[in-house]
Amino acid sequence: MEIPDLVQQELGDEEIRGGVNLGDEDAACFTPTRTLVYRSEGLLSDEKVASYPHDFERLTVSEGRRKTKFSLIYTGEKLELSVPGNRSDAVLERLLEGKLAVSGAIAPDESLAGVFRFSELTLVVTDRQLLKHIGNVTWDADYEAFSFDDVTGLEFEEGSVATAVVLSFNERPERIKAPSEEAPMVRKTLEEALFAYHDVDSLADLNTKVGADPDESADEAGNGLGLESGIDPLVSNDEEGGDDSETASASTSTQAATQPASEQGPTAEATTETRATGTAGIDTDSVEPDTSTDPDITELEAQVAELTAAVEAQNEQLQKQERTIKQLIKELRQGR
């Protein structure tokens, strides 16, 4: 694309990294810090160049039948840019690339592989990460970033109207629904970026390479870093308003509930047998307790409810602890 003289004059020390033809002689030229839009001379207007800096705070997109309008919101002003509808995807990708580079969300040498918009979801795939933004604006500071270093699996679940992309990071799945007509391009873009990053040739090879390492679980158990290791939760019950004695009861109950009776030793077997036959050898299955005349039953039910709540809270703490420990192990291995 030939660069108009008026744009050359506006460049200063910057260089043009890309351009999009907007029809006739109009063009959008992209530098590292701004977008320069050239409008050629018309019957009622002179040629001109408008500048759109990439340090905008929010970006919204409004699509019409033939035109797409971009609204760039800055701290003290709002700028609008209209382009032909069939050029909007290319302009959006360049605008977001400029914004992410200026804000430091992507590295100077990091390139975009694709940008996708599905209703209020915007996805940006680079050669190193996935960026996700949800909201009624197309982009602002409220987005999530997922590094390809942390990918532990990729799956696709095809449906009649949409395809679910299940991309797992540190074994936690991120589900993204893409309309069926756009899903093939989303899949192609993600696979190509991930295959290149992890140096594999197929989806099966990718999942084999980035999947959970069986040796890692063994190392955690051997080093006493599993859930059964007795390490105190990273978030204590004191911080959440809990009670120490309640926590101890919850921990004991959790272990008893998750281990078969045969693995809990003679005491557990005896306890199981006692519960099955009653303390006097009577078959308790044929005896229905009279809860209406025994106030102890009501009190026991309340205690069970309290204990259940404590167990659930403890389980949540243990899950948080497990995720943190896995991340620490990974960082320690990477630092070797």
Automatic annotation (TrEMBL):
Keyword Magnesium: no
Composition bias type Acidic residues, residue spans: 237-246, 285-297
Stretches the record annotates as Disordered: 207-297
Residues in coiled coil: 297-335
InterPro entries (UniProt xref): DUF7115
Bias-annotated ranges (Low complexity): 247-281
Sequence ranges assigned to domain DUF7115 in this UniProt record: 1-106
Protein name: DUF7115 domain-containing protein
Source species: Haloarcula rubripromontorii
